[in-house]
Design a protein that fits this description.
The chain is mainly β. It has one domain: SH3 type barrels (Roll), CATH 2.30.30. Helix content is 0%, strand content 39%. The chain has a 4-stranded antiparallel β-barrel. The protein starts with 13 loop residues before the first strand and ends with a strand.
Length: 66
C-alpha cells in the first residue's frame, strides 16, 4: 500500500519513508509511525510522519503484516 491517503496511516504502523535529504535518490528508511504530521486527507508525495526514532519523512510504502 502506498502512503498517499491519510486514512490508511495510523500510529504503530510499520512503514518506509523518504527523508528530506534522500528525496533525490529515493532511498527509504523503515520504522514505526509515532505521529502523523500532514493534516490533509491526501498528498501526492506521501503523508508526512514522524517515526519513533524521531526521523521525519513522507510515507512511500506501508508494510501489512499477514
Amino acid at each position: 500500500m502506498n502512503g498517499q491517503q491519510r486514512q490508511h496511516i495510523r500510529a504503530g504502523l510499520d512503514v518506509d519513508i523518504v527523508l528530506k535529504q534522500d528525496q533525490r535518490t529515493g532511498k527509504t528508511t523503515r520504522g514505526i509511525v509515532k505521529d502523523i504530521l500532514t493534516n490533509s486527507p491526501f498528498h501526492p508525495h506521501g503523508i508526512k510522519v514522524r517515526l519513533h526514532s524521531g526521523q521525519v519523512g513522507r510515507v512511500k510504502h506501508i508494510h501489512v503484516s499477514p
